[in-house]
Amino acid sequence: MLIRIERDYSVSGDRYPQFSTNFPLPLQPYVSVKDWNAFIHTLNKKLFMAFCPWTIGNLLDIFLSIVTLYASEFVFGSVHRKRIANIEAYVADFARQHDLLAASLRNMGFLNIVFHTKENFARSTTLYSSRESVENQSVQSMPSALTTTPSNLSTYSQNPGAGVNEWMNSIL
Question: Quick one: where's region Disordered (predicted)?
């Protein structure tokens, strides 16, 4: 089963990605509420540090890039890229500790955290190879509270009786 946690725009708008801190019920057999809260708060702090342009590391990165005509990024690398790699490793480590698989945040455009349970992983290894497996795959989606993004509006229009904190089935 795929479990998707959507980005929460009510915290920071679109300045930097932050994810909803609500506990996703489908993760209950795998993750405790305490572990989830520690994970999501740490992840949100790390995302703030990586994407906020006013942190010391990012300001130094910008200054060095301008002075060296971006040669410093080729020689030393970027602080931002290192932080993003650290965030992806953190999410992968959390997933591994709780017997889950995690999709890359970069591949998801920092819009969703996607966890895949290992219980039916062998059955769904062709998830991206055939259209039938995508249509038959169940996806649990948690819309962010207090937001009205286009993705949430389309979910509500398909299922008008669903509440904001209820889990809805949808297809990727």
Answer: 138-160
Instruction: Characterize the bridge pairing of strands 2-6 and 112-117.
Output: antiparallel
CA 35 vs. chain centroid, Å, equals: 16
Judged against a pLDDT cut of 80, whether residue 126 lies above it is answered with: no
Q: What is the pLDDT of residue 94?
A: 97
What are the residue boundaries of the structural domains of the chain, listed by start? 2-170
Cβ contact 144:51 at 8 Å: no
**H or E element at residue 87:** helix 79-97
| pLDDT value of position 155 | 40
The pTM assigned to this predicted structure is: 0.68
Q: How many CB atoms lie within 10 A of CB 4?
A: 21
